[in-house]
Amino acid sequence: MTTRWQVCASRPVDYAVIQAPQLFARDNPLLAEFGRGAGSRRFVVVDDAVQRLYGQRIRAWFQAHGIDARLVPFVGGEDNKTVYAWRALARQLENFPIHRRDEPILAIGGGVLTDVVAFLAATHRRGVPHIKIPTTLMGYVDAAIGIKCGVNFEGAKNRLGAFEPPLAVLLDAGFLASLPMRHLRNGMGEIVKLAVIRDAALFRALEVAGADSLATRFATAAGQHLLDTAVEGMLQELTPNLYEDELARKVDFGHTFSYGLEALHADRLLHGEAVLLDVLVSVAVASGRGLLPAGAAHRVFALVDALGLAPDIGLLSGEAMWAAVQDRILHRNGRQRIPMPTAIGECTFVDDIHPAELASAIPFLRARFQERHERTVEC
Amino acid sequence: MTTRWQVCASRPVDYAVIQAPQLFARDNPLLAEFGRGAGSRRFVVVDDAVQRLYGQRIRAWFQAHGIDARLVPFVGGEDNKTVYAWRALARQLENFPIHRRDEPILAIGGGVLTDVVAFLAATHRRGVPHIKIPTTLMGYVDAAIGIKCGVNFEGAKNRLGAFEPPLAVLLDAGFLASLPMRHLRNGMGEIVKLAVIRDAALFRALEVAGADSLATRFATAAGQHLLDTAVEGMLQELTPNLYEDELARKVDFGHTFSYGLEALHADRLLHGEAVLLDVLVSVAVASGRGLLPAGAAHRVFALVDALGLAPDIGLLSGEAMWAAVQDRILHRNGRQRIPMPTAIGECTFVDDIHPAELASAIPFLRARFQERHERTVEC
Question: Least C-beta-crowded within 10 Å: which of A192, A370, B286, B368?
């Protein structure tokens, strides 16, 4: 007879994702709802470029609210998504100590910044609250609204990290006004991913208003509607499977082969650009297998053209994509579980992708995109 | 009107702490209950000294069960509870990849080892399962049975870490047979802590059978009963407050002033030795305030003598202890929340400890312990 104790508990998750225009307007009280107010402190990590553009405005907000904020600049980009960057922030936090519960850490920046800062919050004293304020389209519709955080390690994306629910996510689309066009297109890669794999209505909205929304930086009603639909769809997918108990995830669409491409071309591909390449490869493979009707594949390609996303097909590598599949098999516990579209907004999961299929998608996509691109250039 | 989404979910925790004598006896099937069996892999981090003594036996068990185990030696001790040690293990894990869900990482060793390895498991791919097998008394009754993990950072204990529930904790008291006596006494510091602050019955059991249990390395029925009572008491405290939502925690007894002493004397104090010093200071302060009757204080001191714990009172420093209080105030969100005994097995929490009280406890304890110690040495 063996003594055996069972430890049973449950940890509740409850956070808000809030549309927050003019978040740092001096009289906007929203941010003050989270954490202790006047006389308290905030450790605020801000994207370097964002600080140059909005630093004064951000400082003024904290001053107006009597909160002692330490603004810590951070240079974004995958290069800085490292153990070193996390440790450097942890060291700065030691020198600006905060209370464990009511002085949340703030992360103001793109997906890399919010991922690293959320990992800092997850690990400092085994977890202190944090608030994410995305300033890129990638952050707004994808990186900042979920609970995944972490850093790259040994050439593997997000290898060290945590699931850490934020205290809140505050979405101020005003930051998109100053975002470089390449980064707007980068975020559009994730929106296209979501539309193709789960949301035919979002896909149609992109066909109708996507290009104009990019051009106007989502400042129109149609642009805001696109953002809201993308956020809503992402949260619908994430919420019932927040800790990835189910390993077959629609939102992993675009996140299988892309891992190898990002590792291979760290200096040339943004995350959303790699995701878009993966989406195109997946569409080509699904079409080649007869899973996806040719008409649907053509609609995806046409949308990518219409949005001016100009994928760099020359960066595709069958070898790198196949290597990424091997790691994803470990990550998905022994099976490929690759989402493949079966119609616009519908999908299935497959476990039997072959390297030859990946290789043959490359010339197909080259013919479809590079030739068109060259024709466009010639015009 | 602002759009606002609420993300609500709940993460269940459910793990077993199991008395597991003869865990690595070749025909013991217990460990095989956790994770996939024949043909699977295990990343097994083993205390260096434990590997020398039990490595062959451990290897033989995995061979007999057809599991490909990579035994990774790790040198324990607070010196190795670092970001570097965690990163080095993470690198080795990259070279012995495991499936994300059904190939749990094993941690076989003392409290430092299980804390670091659990942090590795918490952060690798945002969390993979792990099993803790403590080989020290400290691990058995304290470090291994909860969900806290992490590393020291910038001179602060456990500053970077996580709450990571294990898949299981397997308690094989057989490892205590080869544990150096100093480490047995070290673990006894935590048992005394628990007895004083919440468990008068455990305190009486220590008075009756504590010294003999140390001498026989807990191999008697009375020794096993002490272990079971300590584990049971610790789990009763931890389970309803697993994530420390309540910051006033009885099990923080002995864990306020000790942080400063451990930092100051990293090379001379084991964790349980520092905890015992904190317990004695707390008893002296509580007694000095009239919170704790003098008779109860004397019983604590007499028990410490009877167990031969020989606290090194010369290591006490009022300054270091007061500095630790400052950090604990941050950790306990703005208040001291220091547990203080009011009787054997009863306590209250105080917020108004003064540096002078800490300072005056030192000569009091010196008189009580060093003089006695010197008399003992002279005999």
Answer: A370
